[in-house]
Input
Amino acid sequence: MGKQRASLRGFRPSPFDVRLLALNFVDASVTSASRNQMELKVFNTLSRSVEEFTPLDPAGRKVGMYCCGPTVHDYAHIGNFRTFVFTDLVRRYLEYRGYEVTHVMNITDVEDKIIRKVGESGETLKEFTGRYEKAFLEDLDVLACLPSHKRPRATEFIGPIIAMIRKLVAKGVAYQAADGSVYFSIEKYRGCGCCYGQLLKLNFDEMRVGDRVASDEYEKESVADFALWKARVPADGDVFWKSPWGEGRPGWHIECSAMSTQLLGSSFDLHLGGEDLIFPHHEDEIAQSEGALDYGDGERFVKYWLHGSHLLVEGKKMSKSLGNFFTLRDLLEKGFNGREIRYLMLSAHYREQFNFTIDGLHGARAALDRLDECLHKLGELAAGETAEAESELRTRFAAALDDDLNVSAAWGAVFEWVREKNKALAEGSVTPAAAAAAIAAWQRINAVLGIAAKEVSVPAEIQALAEERVAARKAKDFARSDEIRDQLAADGWVIEDTPKGPRVKRA
Ligand code: AMP
Ligand code: ZN
Output
């Protein structure tokens, strides 16, 4: 495992990707003027239809995006990562189109499951959640998901959470019950003319007024007043905060309402998550935010709700009892790497249920080999030449993603391009300038796809020379150090001195 992880840690952006990051790269060809011709369209769960994406920002540049983050009670599974890779695609594509995105992903570090497990572990809340938060962030990095600009932890937002509950109580849509907990009153909320059931049609005839649900997760059949603040009980151990309603802890749903509106404002553009979050989590987020904050005519909490379909494994819902449950780390131990897993997760449209199989991962490896080989040949031909990116691939790629982020069609365009390039390469009809233009086009679209350059394994004797050079430099034997560098160069290798030490790569 350690060895495997070590090699995956080498899953880095290519030097070109790094340059793009350093330049805070925006595809200049996709300016707001050209956006008018090719509009980005997304499926909005609120309207249950595909809509043109127009940011709330009057200047049309800034986009606020909130994605419900992990509940850090265990290692995240590959279903979770399907959703996070999907949100990474959305963020990268918006940036490619020139939007200035503020991406917020929270860490849910206090909720029912966590409290239960902390009690069993004997650790403090911080020790317990810290371990899984760290693992989650490492996994995201392996999958080349860009870190969110802000990563609020629920436990660091208790003040804003209490303030929001206070507002709901003051407005008469929340109340403290005899058990000491504070609940959101669906009846009172609806009585104010507000709509509960914006994302999902609900049958209120079957609901008994005042029924309450204390747990963070519940089915739509049990729609009932839900907990905002849960009064402290012995099983909570040391996990509690003081509040105007006594000691206790927040409910899961209010955490996201408070964190998202604190960091992105009372109205923001995009809210993302997996389809299981539609009800009750997101429905309750809407009710809490729109119940507590003041919205003008036509204003609302979130403009576009995007939900990713679930990942199945070998056609079945993942479950430990069926033996088809995988964390990312399980797949790494099987010898697959982050780029293969990311590619596979990005091969299907986000609204399609995705059937994950080990065969699929082998297929991903083969597809990436085809792509790598073509890029390698183009790279050899271009040999240091620079050129403007050719436009055709990018046009086809953008047309696919504009169509509700149709990433499978985008890959279709990429592999069609690979076929055409391979044919032209075989015919000898690609000039160095054309090869450079092709590579530049790939690098532009790969700012969205995020497929890292293939790591080339370094032969042992080359590695040994590199290590000898480190020792020579330490001993201030610069003549020997230069001699080794020249010898490596003659063999086609360069040494890059990075903050983490020297890295040997192909010249
Ligand atoms: P959780 O850590 O349980 O709060 O989940 C984190 C994210 O993973 C949420 O957006 C969930 O909707 C999503 N998720 C959970 N299970 C799956 C699955 N099988 N496929 C895709 N996404 C999932
Ligand atoms: Zn959430």
Summary: Residues 1-36 have pLDDT under 50 and may be disordered. The pocket of adenosine monophosphate (ligand 1) is lined by residues 68, 70-71, 79-80, 82-83, 108, 273-274, 276-277, 308, 310-311, 318 (CB under 6 Å). The two ends are 30 Å apart (CA to CA). The first strand starts at residue 41 and ends at 44.
